[in-house]
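Reopening: structure tokens for the pyridoxal-5'-phosphate complex, inputs below.
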Amino acid sequence: MKDRIDQIRHRIYSAALACDRDPGSVTLVAVSKNMPADTIRKAVDAGLRVFGENYIQEAEKKIDAVADPRLSWHFIGHLQSNKAKYVVCGFDLIHSVDTLKLATEIHRQAEKLEKVQDILVQVNIAGESTKSGVETRNALTLVEGISRLSHIRIKGLMTLPPFFDQPEKVRPYFMALSRLREEIQAAGIDNVEMTELSMGMSGDFEAAIAEGATMVRIGTAIFGERL
Ligand SMILES: *Cc1c(COP(=O)(O)O)cnc(C)c1O
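Re-run output (same inputs, fresh job):
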């Protein structure tokens, strides 16, 4: 696993340099869904510190089992409002906020814990009927709505684009998310930072970096195929 991780690090580094970006501006989020706590510990030994999980119950068990204060856990899966309280306790960043209802619930839970919860707004950049995420044309309005919630801090945008074998075909969607970020940034909304762009997975992270990704979410390329 160490070799695979080193290789991915190297590819991130090269992809960033190739477009004149600082390699340090791209965070590797290791997507550890379906992977047991032991595997996560090995990844930590190999130097990884940021892990992305999709399912709350599974994640809670593993966060407790691994119990390593050096780690940062991100929630990247689909989230229902009634599960917000579980996510606010354990996760530093929630990538998948796509409705005001969900954001309001996260805000309420964060207020109870006297915490300000960092989030990303998930955008359904290709308008696919099967995917979560706010529609591109409604994203600005959603960001404005969420910006009024004092216990939430919006850090940027996330997307899960359509799947293609060739990364170059995904690139227009990465570009579209990057543009949307600029539009929202230009609107200058209080309490909204648009510093993060979470996009790119095992098969296409280099294209995402070329379009400005600051977080790449990589599972299979680190841990192998999920069973
Ligand atoms: C599973 C998952 C990933 C990782 O996908 P790989 O192709 O295994 O790298 C990234 N983002 C989200 C939201 C996921 O659910």
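Residues 31, 33, 54, 76, 160, 201-203, 217-221 surround pyridoxal-5'-phosphate (CB under 6 Å). DSSP finds nine helices and nine strands in the chain. Marking as resolved unless the reporter disagrees.
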